[in-house]
């Protein structure tokens, strides 16, 4: 039976993958100086404009995917005689998942013969994006929706998403840290390394002085934790500035010849909270 893989605009994926795959992305609205846009990962020009607004300290914001949008995107698939497999941003960070679940409940009554899978994998950004890239490849290789369901159930808990940020002020604006911490941290040029925990929340792993040390933390964690027997795919994200992401990519490729590393621009939803200069590393590991 045919099925469609769907995600939302919070999932950060490789641009070439998005263009060549059959994945459907439900966009999230982004607001720049009171103008509303729907930015997806392939619209690099608009995404860069969003980050430039942030660098100029102009007002930017994002909103979750509403119920009507999920009903629209899911029903288009169901009407076509296909099943739906959706994974997106964790419920801990957004109300988007709840709206996807409501759409599932509504549409299951209208289409009782169709399957609608809606998953909270307790992930976001490149963590969800890499899961999407892997399951799309599984679909291309002929795996069924139930086989992909089993893969997500068994392995999503091993998906690692760790990242560093260049400036603490965006974490403060997003309510992640206090104004005092942001001020002291910026003065000391502190570069925190964070990760998405088992329950989908953001937690600080380590505080470093400077990006070089923070990058080394991510790389050393990768060395100790990588679990290639699940997948050799590695996804590195970057928000506007890609220098740190490229350094991390080079480090991994030089030391792990089997790793299949790709880059992904960080979209406006995650970017709004972490700011330009954020870089992330996602892969399957022994633990998150």
Automatic annotation (TrEMBL):
Cited Pfam families: DegV
SUPFAM superfamilies from the UniProt entry: DAK1/DegV-like
Keyword vocabulary terms for this entry: Lipid-binding
Lineage: superkingdom: Bacteria
Segments forming a coiled coil: none
One term of GO molecular function: lipid binding
Name of the protein: EDD domain protein, DegV family
Species of provenance: Anaerococcus vaginalis ATCC 51170
């Amino acid at each position: 039976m045919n099925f469609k893989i769907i995600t939302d605009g919070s999932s950060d994926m490789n641009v070439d993958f998005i263009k060549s795959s059959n994945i459907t992305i439900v966009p999230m609205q982004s607001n720049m100086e009171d103008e509303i846009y729907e930015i997806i990962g392939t619209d690099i020009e608009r995404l860069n404009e969003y980050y430039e607004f942030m660098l100029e300290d102009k007002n930017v914001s994002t909103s979750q995917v509403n119920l009507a949008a999920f009903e629209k995107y899911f029903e288009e698939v169901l009407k076509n005689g296909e099943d739906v497999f959706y994974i997106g941003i964790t419920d801990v960070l957004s109300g988007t998942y709840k709206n996807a679940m409501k759409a599932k409940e509504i549409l299951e009554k209208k289409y009782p013969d169709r399957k609608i899978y809606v998953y909270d994998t307790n992930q976001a950004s490149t963590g969800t994006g890499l899961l999407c890239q892997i399951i799309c490849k599984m679909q291309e290789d002929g795996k069924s929706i139930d086989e992909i369901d089993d893969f997500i159930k068994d392995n999503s808990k091993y998906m690692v998403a760790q990242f560093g940020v260049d400036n603490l002020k965006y974490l403060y604006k997003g309510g992640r840290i206090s104004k005092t911490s942001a001020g002291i941290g910026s003065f000391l040029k502190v570069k925190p390394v964070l990760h998405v925990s088992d329950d989908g929340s953001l937690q600080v792993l380590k505080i470093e002085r400077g990006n070089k040390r923070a990058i080394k933390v991510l790389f050393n964690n990768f060395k100790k934790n990588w679990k290639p027997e699940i997948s050799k795919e590695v996804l590195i994200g970057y928000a506007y500035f890609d220098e740190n992401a490229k350094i991390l990519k080079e480090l991994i490729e030089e030391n792990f010849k089997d790793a299949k590393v790709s880059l992904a621009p960080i979209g406006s939803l995650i970017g709004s909270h972490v700011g330009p200069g954020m870089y992330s590393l996602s892969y399957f590991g022994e633990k998150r």
